[in-house]
Automatic annotation (TrEMBL), chain A:
<keyword id="KW-0678">Repressor</keyword>
<keyword id="KW-0539">Nucleus</keyword>
<dbReference type="GO" id="GO:0006357">
    <property type="term" value="P:regulation of transcription by RNA polymerase II"/>
</dbReference>
<protein>
    <recommendedName>
        <fullName>Cyclin-like domain-containing protein</fullName>
    </recommendedName>
</protein>
<comment type="similarity">
    <text>Belongs to the cyclin family. Cyclin C subfamily.</text>
</comment>
<dbReference type="InterPro" id="IPR013763">
    <property type="entry name" value="Cyclin-like_dom"/>
</dbReference>
<feature type="compositionally biased region" description="Low complexity">
    <location>
        <begin position="264"/>
        <end position="280"/>
    </location>
</feature>
<dbReference type="InterPro" id="IPR031658">
    <property type="entry name" value="Cyclin_C_2"/>
</dbReference>
<dbReference type="Pfam" id="PF00134">
    <property type="entry name" value="Cyclin_N"/>
</dbReference>
TrEMBL record, chain B:
<keyword id="KW-0067">ATP-binding</keyword>
<dbReference type="InterPro" id="IPR011009">
    <property type="entry name" value="Kinase-like_dom_sf"/>
</dbReference>
<feature type="compositionally biased region" description="Basic and acidic residues">
    <location>
        <begin position="393"/>
        <end position="406"/>
    </location>
</feature>
<dbReference type="GO" id="GO:0005524">
    <property type="term" value="F:ATP binding"/>
</dbReference>
<protein>
    <recommendedName>
        <fullName>Cyclin-dependent kinase 8</fullName>
        <ecNumber>2.7.11.22</ecNumber>
        <ecNumber>2.7.11.23</ecNumber>
    </recommendedName>
</protein>
<dbReference type="InterPro" id="IPR050108">
    <property type="entry name" value="CDK"/>
</dbReference>
<dbReference type="Pfam" id="PF00069">
    <property type="entry name" value="Pkinase"/>
</dbReference>
<dbReference type="GO" id="GO:0046872">
    <property type="term" value="F:metal ion binding"/>
</dbReference>
<keyword id="KW-0678">Repressor</keyword>
């Protein structure tokens, strides 16, 4: 298990079929379109991340909570449940499993703060604790989650990857939690995709920038920490300098290495020699990926999924979320009658 | 400011009420009752975290027996309300759900009912505490070397699997080592177990004290914070000696916790260890002076290491057995033998070789686990099976266990 991903429940039970996930979204998609649904989910991932930051969790705790949240919604619709209660409970449970237990009241307080502008958070300790049971059941009591961060660190060491690149790749991993890749792919593949993005895709972008006199060296140039252990939850998203967001428009740069001589035609090969000291040698990396004994197609799928996130992110505005939620929760009148009697009794 | 508040209120009203009634009803209606799946045969034990019951599946083709561990419903005040699942239950569920090994107790399923977690384990007829008790009362009758060696090998085998998977058990003691009717060892009670590959989180965080005092490794007694899986090996060494002599090898008295902030210095327990192994020296344990309680060691009288001469009076004659014991009771955690190394120790190459059916050739018939009907909580739903009466062995090891939850 812990030492062996292949025998873990994550691998044997929680690498999912896309059809199953699509099935769970059906109900929601009757009310909002897929982009809107993605944005609503992104908003909740953001809430989880914010609370994690405020309570100074390690990134792994936030990641586990987000994975629980995603797994829950592979079996339920957003519409028929309250994502804020689900999110709070996911955080609470993830803290225990990641060995940094928090008092439930603490998390409730943070939820209230985070949701002040969106319906508030009307649950007390017993409601969250009660929901923990439902969550455990939905997770089928499989609670140990693998994350790509460790894989990334190991590979980076192996590759003698430059610190700033490791950091950027780390940020890409943080962003990857806003997509569903962790439901479909093994963590080491996601780590490889993050490397692929910064070493192959972004290196081209970088070199282009460089040739144009651009100054962007790291995609997420605001990262201040150089130690991956202390890296926060920053992603590339939300930084001013979102070079990656431009990348999706030039998807053509993503080519399977070794497929049809893509690397030979690579416009950056000529300039790479002038980039001495920048660490990434694009051609070498392409070769490195080609030599890996992994399914490169899969890495490219993951890469594309992450990059397409950046295009949705481009026109995401937090202020729109209440309206989106309202559309999602559009009700026939009778549902207003359906007030939880227990909840009412407690008030 | 005012404007902002107005906005908040407005948005608050914009959202239709979100309630989970329908969701809960849907889930509740498809949840199976424990009573519909299992017959409760009786009550086995009550510990710090809950109660254990013996049960049988209601499924016709399933003749297996189960032990259902019901965690105490978390209480706040009088009424049982939900206050969240304990860290201990979380750990045990998370780990047991991943671990699959012949020598680790198998988790069949987890059920939720009555505001409590119920973990359904494969049933084990015995545990080492009960077996040791049976061999010591009314008069002492030693176990055969084959049985001891088989227990030890299987215990090491289970723990080697845990360690290979970065899991430390942290509470190995006879009561937590289960044995099936066929004599197969099943390491149980992973309520204190932890993953230790996450180096970002210091291990001493949260739980101050681990391992029941008699089985607690010297580095823990000396306040070490960077303890390792070697603490499990020390406990196994203690259990090995106890299987041979039927008495705890280091039977110290636990110093009581006076205030919650400080961990008391366990002088008596250390003295019991030094009485047999001699005082630890810088030669035997080069980093001993880095242990937080090191200054306290000055107050101990000097005693020699008498383990070997003591062993010679014990019923097992193998010298390799003594070597293995000494290797597990090594003071320096870095020098202490690992589970994997211990499995390959020459002692296990010698006759009698260990086997999976630890009781093979035993002339005695073991009493069955005592189960009673006295528990009012989960009533027996079937007739309690008649078992051989066993003299009730009063032993506080069953219930004593360090509390660690925050
Ligand atoms: N699978 C099992 N089969 C039979 N008896 C068991 C089983 N698991 C536990 N027990 C009995 O219940 C006792 C307490 O269980 P344990 O898991 O150690 O919980 P605790 O946390 O209360 O110590 C054990 O010492 C043993 O006697
Ligand atoms: Mg126990």
């Amino acid at each position: 298990m812990a030492a062996n991903f292949w025998t873990s429940s994550h691998c044997t039970h929680w690498i999912l079929d896309r059809r199953r996930v699509a099935e769970a979204m059906k109900e929601d998609l009757e009310y909002v379109n897929i982009d809107t649904l993605t944005k609503i989910k992104m908003w909740y991932y953001g809430i989880i991340g914010k609370i994690g930051k405020r309570l100074q969790f390690r990134q792994q705790v936030v990641a586990t909570a987000i994975v629980y949240f995603k797994r829950f919604y592979t079996k339920n619709s957003m519409r028929s449940t309250d994502p804020s209660l689900v999110a709070a409970t996911c955080i609470y449970l993830a803290c225990k499993i990641e060995e940094c237990p928090q008092h439930i009241k603490h998390i409730i307080q943070e939820m209230k703060h985070a949701l002040a502008n969106l319906g508030g958070f009307d649950y007390d300790t017993s409601k969250v604790a009660e929901f923990e049971f439902y969550l455990l059941e939905e997770l089928e009591f499989y609670l140990i989650v693998y994350h790509p961060y460790r894989d990334l660190t190991l590979i980076a060491k192996d590759l003698k990857l430059e610190e700033s690149n490791l950091q950027t790749a780390w940020f890409v991993l943080n962003d990857s939690y806003r997509t569903d890749v962790c439901l479909f792919y093994a963590p080491h593949m996601i780590a490889l995709a993050a490397l692929y993005i910064i070493c192959v895709v972004h290196a081209e972008q970088y070199n282009d920038n460089n040739n144009n006199g651009g100054s962007g060296h790291s995609i997420a140039n605001s990262g201040s920490s150089s130690n991956p252990n202390t890296m926060d939850d920053s992603g590339i998203l939300g930084h001013n300098n979102i070079h990656l967001a431009q990348l999706n428009s030039s998807n053509s740069v993503i080519k399977a290495p070794g497929a049809g001589g893509g690397s030979q035609n690579n416009p950056t090969t000529s300039s790479s020699s002038s980039n001495e000291g920048q660490g990434i040698n694009n051609r070498n990396m392409v070769q490195w990926f080609a030599d890996l004994n992994v399914d490169i197609e899969e890495i490219i799928e993951i890469t594309q999924e992450i990059l397409s996130l950046y295009s949705i992110w481009k026109d995401y505005e937090e202020e729109q979320v209440p309206a989106m939620m309202q559309a999602l929760k559009m009700e026939f009148d009778e549902s207003y009658e359906l007030i939880d009697p227990q909840l009412e009794a407690m008030q | 400011m005012e404007e902002q508040e107005e906005e908040e209120v407005q948005e608050h009203f914009d959202l239709p009420p979100m309630n989970m009634t329908e969701y809960k009803q849907k889930r509740d209606s498809c949840r199976q009752k424990i009573a519909s799946k299992y017959d409760i045969l009786g009550f086995i034990s009550s510990g710090t975290y809950g109660r254990v019951y013996k049960a049988k599946s209601k499924i016709k083709d399933d003749n297996k027996e189960y032990a259902i561990k019901k965690f105490k419903p978390d209480k706040e005040g009088e009424a049982a309300t939900y206050i969240g699942i304990s860290q201990s239950a979380c750990r045990e569920i998370a780990l047991c759900r991943e671990l699959h090994h012949e020598n680790i107790v198998g988790l069949e399923e987890v059920l939720l009912e009555d505001k409590s977690i119920h973990m359904v384990f494969e049933y084990a007829e015995h545990d080492l505490l009960q077996i040791i008790g049976f061999h010591s009362h009314p008069e002492r009758k030693f176990m055969s070397e084959y049985t001891i060696k088989s227990f030890l090998w299987q215990l090491l085998n289970g723990v080697a699997y845990l360690h290979a998977n970065w899991v430390m058990h942290r509470d190995l003691k006879p009561a937590n080592i289960l044995v099936t009717a066929n004599g197969v060892v099943k390491v149980g009670d992973l309520g204190l177990a932890r993953l230790f590959y996450k180096p970002l989180q210091p291990l001493f965080n949260g739980d101050k004290v681990v391992v029941t005092i008699w089985y607690r490794a010297p580095e823990l007694l000396l306040g070490s914070r960077h303890y390792t899986k070697a603490i499990d090996i020390w406990a196994i060494g203690c259990i090995f000696a106890e299987l041979i002599t039927l008495r705890p090898i280091f039977k110290g008295e636990e110093a009581k916790v006076e205030n919650k902030k400080t961990v008391p210095f366990q002088k008596n327990q250390l003295q019991k260890i030094f009485d047999i192994l001699g005082n630890p020296t810088k030669e035997r344990w080069p980093t001993i002076d880095q242990q937080p309680e090191y200054p306290n060691l000055a107050s101990f009288r000097q005693t020699p290491n008498v383990l070997r001469s003591l062993y010679q009076q014990w019923p097992i004659k193998s010298e390799q057995g003594c070597n293995l014991l000494a290797a597990m009771l090594e003071y320096d955690p870095l020098k202490r033998i690992t589970a994997e190394e211990a499995l390959n120790h020459p002692y296990f190459q010698e006759d009698p070789k260990p086997g999976l059916e630890s009781f093979a050739g035993q002339p005695v018939e073991f009493p069955l686990r005592r189960i009673t009907n006295e528990d009012k909580d989960m009533r027996a739903t079937a007739n309690v099976q008649k078992s051989h009466p066993v003299p009730a062995v009063k032993d506080d090891r069953l219930t004593k266990r360090p509390r660690v939850d925050a």
